[in-house]
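dude i think i finally got it to work??
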Amino acid sequence: MKFLLKRLTSIFTTFTLVTANLFIAVPTTFAAAETISCNAGGSRTLTQGVYTDSDGTEFTSGADLTLNVGTGVDCTFTFNGEMTLASLTIESGVTLTHGDNTTTQTNTLTVTATGDIDVQTGAIINVNYLGYNGGAVYGSGYGPGAGTGTGGSQGAGGGAHGGDGGVGRDGSSNDDNPGGAAYCDPDDPDTIGSGGGGGSASSTGGA
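look at this
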């Protein structure tokens, strides 16, 4: 997975005292409040463009954006790229995620806001299992920290990301398959997770 939150701080208001009068300089434009609801749809793919109404899929750059379930019970919003906002509120029942990846890093999610990013109780930002693909049968996974595949009964190596991938073993130290080496800063993630190696029947994708 790759997900990054950025909260930028800035001063919008300045105060100047002239003789006995107080003059307040305020911004000439304010962020627009925009809400997008899933309603009965269950899922929506968002894009940054021109907001229409709560039934649309586009939001305006720099908006105060709220995502909610509307008349539904739960909802998944998918966005690929960087959301540039004044603030973001994710209400209960909403999951925010990005699209899946395969053998290259294509889809990521970054949220940049000058104000608050409010993930409310019952809401979630979930980008698990959306990294590089795992290896085919006996094959190594994909990504810069891919795990090694196995051609025998021993386990395959795990994929790496912010930490090293696990070592695949069959109980004998002679048959270890190494996991991938860590390559991403957990405090400033800008990459997706690598896939684990493939065993005799299955493989696991990256985080």
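DSSP finds no helices and 15 strands in the chain.
im so relieved honestly
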